[in-house]
Write a structure and sequence with these properties.
Blueprint (H helix, E strand, L loop, with lengths): L1 E3 L5 H12 L7 E4 L7 H5 L4 E6 L4 E6 L8 H10 L3 E7 L3 H7 L6 E8 L2 E4 L6
Parallel strand pairs: 4-5, 5-6
Antiparallel strand pairs: 1-7, 2-3, 3-4, 6-7
């Protein structure tokens, strides 16, 4: 899937993911991960980790850029999974291996994203 990209941040990737989900649901919300958890790591730079929530489908995509240590997402993914959400972590392609290592055992999937020119692409869903 390719979409036009306005800016090169996880906010723009979250916007693109939300647009894709809005084709399947009317209840799509975007928010910083910092609004979901009380973890100082996410409050320091709230635009480096975004959540795309689709409540009627119980889906959540956690979108990160290069700044977030992926191991910090494991407790977030676990908390959401415990509440009944299906969680996918969207990571830059170059961080896919790191995501497999740091999220191993977490109840979430991994989906890489990358840029080609100004086009944003999403890869296949993977399990850590």
């Amino acid at each position: 899937m390719a979409v036009g990209l306005r800016e090169r941040t996880c906010v723009a990737v979250a916007d693109a993911a939300a647009r894709a989900w809005s084709r399947r649901s009317d209840s799509v919300m975007e928010m910083p991960v910092a609004t979901l958890v009380d973890m100082p790591a996410f409050h320091a730079a709230p635009d480096t980790a975004m959540a795309v929530m689709v409540p009627d489908l119980q889906r959540c995509e956690l979108v990160v850029d290069d700044a977030v240590p992926l191991a910090r997402l494991q407790p977030v993914a676990e908390m959401l999974a415990e509440e009944g959400w299906t969680v996918t972590v969207l990571v830059p392609t170059r961080r896919t291996g790191e995501a497999h290592r740091d999220l191993r055992g977490a109840r979430c999937g991994i989906q890489p994203y990358w840029l080609e020119g100004k086009e944003l692409h999403f890869g296949r869903h993977q399990l850590p």
